[in-house]
Design brief:
The complex is a heterodimer. Helix content of chain A is 66%, strand content 2%. By secondary structure, chain A is mainly α. The model of chain A has no long low-confidence stretch (mean pLDDT 95). The mean pLDDT of chain B is 97. The chains are: A mainly alpha, B mainly alpha. The structure holds fe (ii) ion (2 copies).
Chain lengths: 331, 256
């Protein structure tokens, strides 16, 4: 998802009677659906995992501004331009809420950003794919924001209070993102043959990466089990992926474009769509840094940060001068 | 007497300056010095884009009165060529570094607020109405760019030097905000527009006060560039339009 393959530090999930009294009390609160707040005692691994997960999520919002920002200056109408600007601005806001939520766990935004820039922290693999045509802006809203909603709605119920509250604010805006993307797709699919081909091409390129956003299959994931017990992951990767496929296939049918998956088929018995095998090698590769845009995305972030250093320093210096003046006046 | 042709021309000046500046601010999104600034500049950009759309909508009505058919906002914004654009040269100047962007914004915002304060009382009810709406937003723009001029001017040695350089470089593009041509004069006579020249003194006073608080020097150069309001632009506008208009031009007639 926006936070894929988050390391929990756990080799396996321990049972209640293997836990220390503190850990046990903590787990019992979680089991009783009582929110954990920053001042509460928490196992170190829970804290660290959450920092990783929330910061990955925050970084994804910020890096995610780049592929879409790429089309703000080229949006085809003024209305679309305004919508896209507002959307990308929302993503900056999401990043901000999430960095604040992570800061309650005792790290600073600057430290988190430094980890992103050094390559130590990850962000969602999906943003390492290029936006080549206007239809990609439609596909991102429809598929990527659609997948984000799928993941984030359950997280509104997660065990950590600040994260859960951040997710509630974020989800309110995500449905607008998804709708504007789908609306772009509708327009293209009802448009000229060239526009419809653009929409199909975007779907071809974004479909599989969107499915990879939910992370590797459950069978391969020890960390998922620990995260589920801590209720910082509510539904499993495979469950979320299946829900996403089930929701999205009828939408593609409505648009009159085809999923690039010859094995995709409704399964009456399961009551779900079956779909073809996912190329996990591709995901691991992109996460490792070999996606089509990894280098550009990271260097764009680093450049913005470095180019802005003198501005941040100036703001700080000015604030210090003002504080010194105020102190002198008070004395 | 104000003719529709003159009014149309004047409305395009208002719309085009807002649009081109919004386009420039859109280039920053995702690349600002700090997240809060990305959000703030997106707000300003969105406000200006919204204002451009209101002016275009009115321009389109006026054009309908003249020709029976008014162009849509997208036709006006995305299918006119550079020579038909009426924006100030100031707003088409490249983003440069953050100080350049802030200086451009500050010069524009202070003028914009003064202008809209007058237009709010325009004899043309539609202009008065749009100006009143826009003014609420622009009041915040001025506060924000003023704040940054002071922080960067009175920040570090580096920021002071960059801020002063930006203030100096953009200075010659401020003159056309205060020169009146036949269009301005015709509309001012009817109480529709305001006398551009009369904005100069309050603008200088405000800009001078902020620069002095920012420990910066008000430029003294006399020579001013001009031409934007008449459609004679700097080389930068062509590139802005090439990017902004490309999809509309590559797929004529397509709906998006
Ligand atoms: Fe988001
Ligand atoms: Fe979103």
């Amino acid at each position: 998802m926006y936070a894929q393959m988050v390391d929990t530090g756990a080799k396996r999930v321990r049972s209640l009677d293997e836990l220390s009294p503190e850990e046990r009390a903590f787990q019992e609160r979680i089991d009783a659906d009582i929110k954990i707040e920053p001042k509460d005692w928490m196992p170190e691994a829970y804290r660290k995992t959450l920092i990783r997960q929330i910061s990955q999520h925050a970084h994804s919002e910020i890096v995610g501004m780049l592929p879409e920002g790429n089309w703000i200056t080229r949006a085809p109408t003024l209305k679309r331009k305004a919508i896209l600007m507002a959307k990308v601005q929302d993503e900056a806001g999401h990043g901000l809420y999430l960095y604040c939520a992570a800061e309650t766990l005792g790290v600073s935004r600057d430290e988190l950003i430094a980890d992103l820039h050094s390559g130590k922290a990850k962000y969602s693999s999906i943003f390492n794919y290029p936006t080549l045509t206007w239809a990609d802006i439609g596909a991102i809203g429809w598929l990527v924001d659609g997948a984000a909603i799928m993941n984030q709605i359950p997280l509104c119920r997660c065990s950590f209070g600040p994260y859960s509250r951040a997710m509630i604010r974020v989800c309110k805006e995500e449905s607008f993102h998804q709708r504007q993307g789908f609306d772009i797709m509708i327009r293209l699919c009802q448009g000229t043959p060239e526009q419809k081909a653009m929409a199909q091409d975007a779907l071809n390129r974004w479909w599989w990466p969107s499915l990879m956003m939910f992370g590797p299959p459950d069978a391969d994931s020890v960390h998922s089990a620990q995260s589920a017990q801590w209720k910082i992951k509510i539904l499993s990767n495979d469950e979320l992926r299946q829900r996403f496929v089930d929701q999205t296939v009828p939408q593609a049918d409505f648009l009159g474009i085809t999923m690039p998956d010859p094995l995709l088929e409704w399964n009456d018995e399961r009551g779900h769509y079956d779909f073809g095998p996912i190329d996990w090698q591709e995901l691991f590769n992109v996460v490792k840094g070999n996606g089509p845009c990894n280098r550009e995305r990271l260097s764009a972030r680093v450049k913005a940060w470095e180019d802005g250093a003198w501005v941040r320093e100036a703001a700080l210096a000015y604030a210090e001068k003002q504080a010194a003046k105020a102190a002198k006046q008070a004395a | 007497m104000t003719t529709d042709r003159t009014l149309f021309d004047y409305l395009l000046r208002l719309a085009d300056s807002d649009l081109i500046l919004a386009q420039r601010l859109g280039e920053w999104l995702g690349h600002g010095p700090v997240l809060e600034e990305d959000i703030a500049f997106a707000n300003v950009g969105l406000d200006l884009l919204g204002q451009a759309r209101m002016w275009f909508a009115y321009a389109s009505e006026v054009e309908t009165r003249m020709n029976g058919r008014g162009r849509t906002e997208d036709e006006l914004a995305l299918l006119r060529d550079g020579g038909d654009f009426r924006n100030l040269l100031l707003v088409e100047q490249p983003n440069g570094n953050y100080a350049d962007t802030i200086a451009r914004q500050f010069y524009f915002d202070v003028w914009h607020e003064l202008l809209l304060t007058r237009l709010e009382r325009s004899a043309d009810a539609r202009i008065a109405e749009i100006a009143a709406k826009a003014l609420k937003e622009v009041t915040y723009h001025v506060e924000r760019s003023t704040d940054w001029i002071i922080r960067l001017g009175d920040g570090t040695d580096v920021s002071h030097a960059r801020m002063q350089a930006a203030i100096d470089v953009l200075w010659p593009y401020t003159g056309e905000m205060f020169t009146a041509d036949a269009t301005d004069r015709a509309l001012t006579g009817d109480g529709v527009a305001c006398d551009s020249e009369s904005l100069l003194a309050p603008w200088r006073e405000r800009v001078g006060a902020v620069l002095s608080e920012a420990t910066l020097t008000l430029p003294s150069a006399e020579w001013m560039q001009r031409g934007g309001k008449q459609g004679v632009h700097t080389e930068h506008l062509g590139h802005v339009l090439a990017e902004m208009q490309w999809l509309q031009r590559a797929y004529p007639g397509a709906q998006w």
